[in-house]
Amino acid sequence: MLINFGKFAIRGVAGAIVDTSVLWILTTLFFRSYFTKYVLSPAISYEIGIAVTYIICYFWIWNHRVHNDKSDFFRLFLSYNFALLISLVVKIGLLTLINELFHFHIVICNVLALCFSGIFSFFASEKFIFIKRGY
């Protein structure tokens, strides 16, 4: 599990880079209102980050626990997406709280919130999504 956690941390950095880049693009170029900057754009960026991190999980971290076929890929993606959407609620809440308390730039708030939501994501992936199966 320690090796998977290390790989998961690397996956998290890649996901954070994607998530934060998309968030920056959306909040800089497209969205201006409070709702679109602090709720909608983090949700969009997080979902794109989920897709990227899922691909890393499926093909690199837990590749020995999957079937490597289309139906398995999409079935597990739905479970992974659902689990990470739960952590999205945590992320948005923390992002908003950190911003309100410390008035950091949204990108800084996002990175800090991602660190906390990542712990939940690892346990969900390890224990509930990419479970060991007898093939």
Encode the helix/strand succession as letters.
HHHH
* Low-confidence region ranges: none
Calculate the terminal CA-CA distance, rounded to whole Å.
Answer: 20 Å
- How would a crystallographer describe the biggest sheet? none
The quaternary structure here is single chain
* pLDDT averaged over residues: 90
Net shape: elongated
Rounded Rg: 15 Å
Total helical segments? 4
Taken together, the total number of domains comes to 1
- Please state the structural category: mainly alpha
Instruction: Give the helix proportion (percent range).
Output: over 70%
Approximate strand percentage: under 5%
Number of strands: 0
Task: Note down, in words, how this protein is organized.
- This protein is mainly alpha-helical.
- It has one domain (2-129).
- Helix content is 84%, strand content 0%.
- It has 4 helices and no strands.
- The chain has helices spanning 2-30, 34-61, 70-102, 106-129.
- Helix 1 packs antiparallel against helix 4 (106-129), helix 2 crosses helix 3 (70-102) and helix 3 (70-102) runs antiparallel to helix 4.
- The longest helix has 33 residues, at 70-102.
- The radius of gyration is 15 Å and the shape is elongated.
- The two termini are 20 Å apart.
Labels describing this entry:
4 helices, mainly alpha, 84% helix, 0% strand, 135 residues, elongated
Topology:
Layout: H1 2-30, H2 34-61, H3 70-102, H4 106-129
Helix pairs in contact: 1-2, 1-4, 2-3, 3-4
